[in-house]
What does this fold into?
Amino acid sequence: KQEVTQIPAALSVPEGENLVLNCSFTDSAIYNLQWFRQDPGKGLTSLLLIQSSQREQTSGRLNASLDKSSGRSTLYIAASQPGDSATYLCAANRGSNYKLTFGKGTLLTVNP
Amino acid sequence: GAGVSQSPSNKVTEKGKDVELRCDPISGHTALYWYRQSLGQGLEFLIYFQGNSAPDKSGLPSDRFSAERTGGSVSTLTIQRTQQEDSAVYLCASSLYSVAGQPQHFGDGTRLSIL
It folds into this structure.
């Protein structure tokens, strides 16, 4: 059974800092890994999706990497802004299964 | 529509009552998913539709939970004889196809509170 873990559970940083959020998964037979952002009282916004054949994806100030052999993914946020404050979730598809298995998220606070 | 739409956004009901939650997926998306987000459990998969059929109901927590989808579009999740442990945010997502490479797009959820 796939288990997804996110560390830390919460992170507080000053504006402008670069930061890394971590995601680990127990079953390396993943098809892809997706990073989401969730604002309070809102649904999930897809940020980046990395296919198993890829090592990283970039969108603006965000960069996500995937290392299947070690069961890890990281989300790098450059030059953080207060508007980046949210909960960040990672989720993995096992094999070709459409079902997403989610981590419990990292609550990020960027202080002005 | 522009995004996945869920209604109601909030629902408060008494224990033992039945509730219906509605999801309107992105137009043209053939796959639809229901998840539940609760404080202790995080996000859990409930059920998945491809068109109007539900090949995978494995995540439904009990037989009090059921879901249907009509016209390949709108889906309704029904919880009968609600219990306090049913309190959670119920999220719906849709994707163009039901394959793992397709990103899932989420609605804002229905926050269900059972008194």
